[in-house]
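Notes, Module 5: Reading structure tokens.

Key idea: the token line is not a picture. It is a compressed description, and you learn to read it the same way you learned to read a sequence, by spotting repeated patterns. We will look at two proteins. The first is printed below with its tokens.
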Amino acid sequence: MAPRTPTAPTAAARPVFQVGDQLELFVKEDLTLNGSYLVREGGYIVIPRAGRINVAGLSREEAEPRVREFLQKTQLKEATVIVERTPGVASGTGAVGAGPTGVPRVMVFITGSVPRTGAHAIPAPAGKSVGVYEALLISGGLTKFATLDKIEIFRYDASGRRRKSVIDMRPIMKGEADDPPISEGDIINVPEKVFGF
């Protein structure tokens, strides 16, 4: 009986960032840090006002806490960080934007009051748009502390800048309003209710 090698599937499931990758960074507490960052020849990205952070050879699960700790030391008291390879430039992971069954997928980044934050490849069959509420359900739903009337969508405009829009999810959940379709690269932030004492 051949010895088990548990590390192989883990490596396949968690591709690492490499020099030349374009990474998308989202920091909930400081939107000025958001943007695309190139992994440079030295294996690092350069974040304005923060400096160099080495990410080459790290998986997303390893890079996110490193960036968070670095920002908390240099810029912020608290940092909620998402780091993801920009869709379409993944290295060594096969066809980007299509799942194992060949169904097209839309990559969105979800943060805030949800059970599973991070990047989500949402199945989007050809000819069918997927709404924001639908995408949140597919990715794990909302927590009981979610602020439903102030869901924030950060989306690239024609000039390449991210613009924020706010939607009220309550009429959508009741079937009284259309569910606005998601777009590739959207950041969906679900704020948490603030309780006063």
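Here is the second protein, with the sequence above and the tokens below, as before.
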Amino acid sequence: MRIGQLARRSGVGVRALRHYEEQRLLESTRTPGGQRDCPGEVLERVQLIQDLFAAGLSSRTVVELLPCVSTGVATPAMLDQLVVERDRIAARVQDLTRARTEPGRVIENVTAANVAQG
């Protein structure tokens, strides 16, 4: 799969995909014409990278942890880092869930006030 095709299918820009490759998050080969050619499973890997970034992991952390995610083999330090990241994400989910409650209360109050007036 060429990088432009990967960009269209993944929704990730070509520039970002090239950056991922520079960071060794993605691998590609070169065609005789010098174009990047990515293996078929790269789409799933790009989605995983995007998910990890969306979860708040830094690019440095993703670079460090992606090999163990991909292979299932991890050093004790990698496992410790994964536990830290999992716990940080869980805390963030709790914070967001708590924050979501407040707009819900406002919506209920405004809706109730509008029904009472109308």
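Summary for the second protein:
- The longest helix spans residues 76-117.
- Helices lie at 3-10, 14-22, 42-54, 59-71, 76-117.
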